[in-house]
Structures are given as C-alpha cells and as structure tokens.
Amino acid sequence: xxxxxxxxxxxxxxxxxxxxxxxxxxxxxxxxxxxxxxxxxxxxxxxxxxxxxxxxxxxxxxxxxxxxxxxxxxxxxxxxxxxxxxxxxxxxxxxxxxxxxxxxxxxxxxxxxxxxxxxxxxxxxxxxxxxxxxxxxxxxxxxxxxxxxxxxxxxxxxxxxxxxxxx
Length: 167
Fold this sequence. Notes:
Number of domains: 1
Helix content: over 70%
Radius of gyration: 17 Å
Shape: globular
Distance between the termini: 37 Å
Order of helices and strands: HHHHHHHH
C-alpha cells in the first residue's frame, strides 16, 4: 500500500464499477447460452475450476520469490485504472460465469433470479477486496515477514476451491 488509502479507494470505485459491468454481462451470456445449449453450462464450471487451479499454482509459486520482487508496484491507482483493469480481468469474467453456472443455474434458470444473483456478485469480490485493502494496511508487516507461508496457504486454499467445484 505504497500509494495510500485514498488512492486505493479511488481505484476501488473503478474496480467495483467494472466488476458490476462484467457481472451483468455474465448474467446475459449465461442466460442466453443456457437457454440455447444447456449441456454447455457444465463446461463453464470445469473451465472455472481449471482457471482457479492455475491461479492456485501461480500463487504458490510466488512463495519462492522475495517479497519486494512480488510487490514492486510503480503504478498509481485511480478510478479509470481500476475500471479498465476489471473490464479486462479474465479472472473476474471466469469467476462470474463460474459462480452463476455452478451456484445459481442448478436451482433457478429464470432470468429475474439470475439477474438478482448477478447484481449481488459485485458485493462479493469488490467488497472483500475493500476489506482486504484495509486488512492489508494493518497486516502488511506480518505479510512481509511471512509471505512465503501466506502465499503457499492461499494457493492451497484456491486449489481446494477448484476441487470443490468439480467434485
């Protein structure tokens, strides 16, 4: 958090806005694809799980690197940066598609329910990101000191989530 909380908050507003647009686009994509190709929906869950497993491995590999090499950020955040980061963030797209197909479609296939779920999604990732922002400020010293353990545990947690999606 080299740039400070106020800069991070401005960037977070952009992240939230971009995330909301991606979530709503995912609602329409999933609804129309599930209407046309019902068997294709299961593929989204497997793609999402595979991507989460890839992220788990990537995160675990970060444990090998020195802390300063991982956190060498030279960019200053603002609304526009956060917004465009989310609009081009494949992880968010895969997350939204996977969440809708894995946790919503088995129970409700009608558009109003899927839309409500899509409107709730931005309050999961970005709000957790905001909590992480403030926790990061408070816990930065611990993360710096124990980053290898932290990255390894987070990677294992993601791997567990990926296995839970396909199991």
